[in-house]
């Protein structure tokens, strides 16, 4: 397979009253054609900022990208003009956001919002765009598309609005879809519907997906590869199967152990990750996770660990004690 | 079996919605439509369901923050349904609430010490100021916060710490029942487990009774003794957690359980999944018969005609389904 998106050493910084905050601190990851990749982490870990950086939607002067390359289909997106970038956003990379109601325009009909992009980016005429819009609604499972096109977002339920977002993202046949917490605002039964739909469409149309989420369960079923982020860095990456079977970073292990699971016998106690999430303005010199880590040794406070191969199949972890973790976890 | 601390019988709550400029043709939202359950002392009852199923309204009716349209609520031996405000004041001390979003439920201009001391003062529990501050320190320690947190303001705390303050404020009244309304769903995964463990510790130490309202089935299974599943204003199934999760009788419970993702790709791949058709209908105009029948994979003719009552199918295992 060929690499579709290659993010190298991306750094994104925000200026706040408390000082410079490096929300994304030199991360590198890639997405291959047709592949589903996940960025997983808790609030403030930099997963959404990573996605916004790719789309160049970080607004100066508060935030700016101050390092790295984003190679998409052989071009560095950071070097494109604003005009060229607009073309990439509409046509080549689609986006699905968490809250469909706030990302749709409440005073434009569903039809208008679907056809606008088609007319601008795909240069379709009004009739062709309308035909395509009806086809798209059918694709995402919205029946009665003729009537639906003349309705407004408030007449759609939450699940339908998210289907509509998926339709908009797919409108111009993109090769990549960025989905930022696509199902977090939805009920569980609707979540399942939307995820099945996205997976089915991405396979059928060969579109690659980047799913950004905090829910490890969601990722297990739908991602090929998973990147786990903490405090602006990637701390572990592996194929989904490998990551869940053989976590090699204490944070990943902690995340997996702290959630109660339906498939396991009931436990007396949960095993939380102690302490609080890091304050990005006051990160420690060494490993950012060290203050909460059960495997901490002296070296963790002195020196920040880098991503190193810990097993085959591209499994990397940023932990000085990654080898000790295996024996401990098995015990 | 110990006696019930809370008994809810045939609870109904309708909200009227006016349409048009003059508020004519009022239609009715059937938020809760005949709900009955009880909670024993020291027990945790989990209440699960999707948004709009009436679980939060049920909690608010129990707390008498909403007046029920009909039905009775007995708490700690007395009927609180028709009590006036001054009688309720006494009862409310014994029933407290923890909200989902600790940030919007704490006054941003008050220090943590003032937030915790105010209800103690208002209810005249500890009239002496110095002793009150002593009590605040004690409460902070109980929820795992440090004495210096008393001088901070809500914005200076993390989400998990703010939820601890919310719990301390509930504990300040020395309650018997705490209604926990989605207490961990706004928190990061790594913090959720801390708060759940804290709630369990406090229950063991202080003999608290919880009504635990949440949409996360894994969390509810972990913390509850018994679980009630709600759909569109009705309890569709109620059982011991073990029975409910291992042998669910209602098709909606089945669907809910199969929709929960499990963090294990191997298991997920082999799991059979029941994806429900359609969406939850509007409580403005609920379906006839069984409210679940339009989405139910096994519905028969009878389901659209006749409302299934909540029946005890096995000992202690109740379900509202004609086919159970």
Describe the protein's architecture and organization:
- The complex is a heterodimer of chains A (about 325) and B (about 325).
- Helix content of chain A is about 35%, strand content about 25%.
- Chain A has helices at about 45-55, 80-90, 100-105, 110-120, 125-140, 145-150, 160-170, 190-205, 215-220, 240-245, 250-260, 300, 320-330, and strands at about 5-15, 20-30, 35-40, 65-70, 75, 95, 175-180, 210-215, 225-230, 235-240, 310, 315.
- Chain A has an 8-stranded mixed β-sheet, with helices on both faces. Chain A has a 4-stranded antiparallel β-sheet with strand order 2-1-4-5.
- The mean pLDDT of chain A is about 90.
- Chain B has an 8-stranded mixed β-sheet with strand order 6-7-8-3-9-10-12-11, sandwiched between helices. A 4-stranded antiparallel β-sheet of chain B has the order 2-1-4-5.
- Classes of the chains: A alpha/beta (about 325), B alpha/beta (about 325).
- The interface of A and B includes residues 42, 192, 217 and 260 of A.
